[in-house]
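User: Need the bound-state model for NAP:
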Amino acid sequence: MILVTGATGLNGKAIVREFARQKHVVRALVRDLNRASASGLGDLAGVDLVEGDMRRAETLGAALDGVDRVLMISTAGDDMTETQCRFIDACRTAGVGHVVKFSGRESNIGYDATKFRFTRMHEEVERYLEAVGMAWTHLRPSQFMQVYLRDAPTIAAEGAFYLALGETELSPVDVEDIAKVAFRLLRDGGHAGESLDMTGPEALTMTDIAARISQATGKPVRYVDVSPEQRRRNLLAAGIPASFADALDEQLAERRRRPKSRVHLATHEMFGVKPTPFVEFARRHATAFGGGA
Ligand SMILES: NC(=O)c1ccc[n+]([C@@H]2O[C@H](COP(=O)([O-])OP(=O)(O)OC[C@H]3O[C@@H](n4cnc5c(N)ncnc54)[C@H](OP(=O)(O)O)[C@@H]3O)[C@@H](O)[C@H]2O)c1
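Assistant: Bound-state model below.
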């Protein structure tokens, strides 16, 4: 049996949907069965929803029973290291064979992972998992294309989005590509001891991204470069908690120091997944970005 955690989240849900699309059974860990069923996960054929808390081994008996391979995802938050290390402990006790850690790797060339709390936490969890004795694989996507959906409201309303990246490039990857890779990796196994980095197919400045959203929606879209302080004020005004804004400040500062971005498609190629270009992602979400009406 294969278990996917974080199944109500952005990637977990996409991965579980990919299993259902491929008519392959999967078990999905959720914290609240009613909420998960209401979100549509319960209607997917072949998906066995199981309730449990990754931090509390005593809640994970049913979820981990008979499981060979796990994909481990949890929220990027202050407790991520603790949550994932306790979950790894529970997997080892339950006799799980192989844990795939959903990790992260910034695409900027020379990016120092220790400068951003979440990449630092991912490195800590990776080291912990490598030391416990189960087979492991690290799946390390770069920024998700779906991050730009956060800016969809101002793009739709004003034809503009406001970030503080200057000419910095990023190589965002589509969550649907990650889901296809994760499905094939979990279904077929193997790749133990490997770290699988993934970016999207293009290194893009924010002006490039504006042009692609414009192409997809048929409407003018411009990127407005604001100061890091203004970006922080915008995040707080949008309801982002201060601690998360602090984390994004760290990430931004290091990205601005490392403005060139690499493209790494070896994982797409290894699993036979076609890399989705940004314009195709934007076309899929054209309505959210204010096009198509
Ligand atoms: N943002 C990016 O561009 C980027 C890029 C690369 C990697 N990453 C990494 O991707 C990961 C987040 O992926 P995502 O955005 O798909 O996740 P997400 O949407 O934030 O969802 C997180 C999931 O984890 C679940 N979860 C959290 N704590 C749990 C616990 N104690 N027990 C059981 N489930 C728990 C949540 O369940 P509930 O619904 O119950 O809360 C939710 O389903 C983070 O590790 C982040 O660092 C992010």
